[in-house]
Structures are given as C-alpha cells and as structure tokens.
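Same chain as my last thread, 178 residues:
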Amino acid sequence: MRLFQAWNNIPRSFQAYSNLFRKVLEDYSKLSTATFSKILVAIDGSAHAEKAFRHAMTLAQKFSSKVVVVHVMSPPRAGGEMGHFPVQEAVKAAFESAESMLAKFSSMAQQEFGLPVETVTAKGGGAVADEILKTADSNKVDLIVMGSRGLTGFKELVLGSVSSAVVHRSKVPVLTVK
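reply #2:
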C-alpha cells in the first residue's frame, strides 16, 4: 500500500521539481543577459587592484561598457621630524601620486585593451568605502570592481576592510578580485 501511495505522489513531486527547475532556468536566462553599461573599478596601487582592473577591462570589452577608474586619496597622516608636518607638501605629493597612478591605468587600458577610461581622484575626507560608493552613485555605474585586499593599515584590519564595507553597502553588484 505504501509503495502505491508513494507512486501516486511522484507526479506531484515531479511537477514541483519541474516548476522549480523552470524557475531556475528563467532566473539564469535573466542573469546571462545582464549587461553592464558602466563599470567602476577602484584602484589603490596594490596587486589585487591591478587584477581587479584587468577583470573590469575584460568585462568592459565583453559588454561594450564604459569604465570609470577611481582612486581615493587618503588624508595625510601626522608625523615627521620633531612634530613638523608640512600638510600642503603632503597633499600635493599624494595628489601627484594619485594622478600618476591613474595615468598608468589609463594608458594600460588603451594599450592592452583598446578602451578609453574616465579617471576620478576622490579627494573627500571621508572613509575610502564612502568615497567609492559616492563615486559609484554620482557616475550611475552598474557594477563596482575592486580588489579583495588593498594597501590598508592596521585600522582597516581591525575595523573591517574597505571591500567588505563596499559589498555590504553598495546598491549595485560588487565584484571583488583576489
């Protein structure tokens, strides 16, 4: 009797699995047709950031996307001999370093991928994750690509990484690259 009852339940179970499978296929087809018209890639000079940049450029080629490359300038840290801290010189050096890094990535995009990129130096005094998210919002990007680890200090290790903060607070998908 139990075998007969189980046999009678197979069509209902099969139908339920069939409907579930159909739903999964529909969701996958939506995902596989997703496009990214504008991609933001965050760089900081780390090896992970360079890998993230290369992944972003490959996606940009595949989807014919525009790319925005952002570098967030960290505020200068106090230090120096005898408490002397030339703030203007430190800010100028940080800005020149950021511009040099962005020029390097812009050149790499053109030479290796044949694509132009827009570059942004975020100079805000906020946290790095906040600046990345503000840049993503203001540029209306569809995807953020960044390294899973960057050039961070002890503070970021204790309080949580920049990539983790971006992943948790972003309104758009985030691809982190190892």
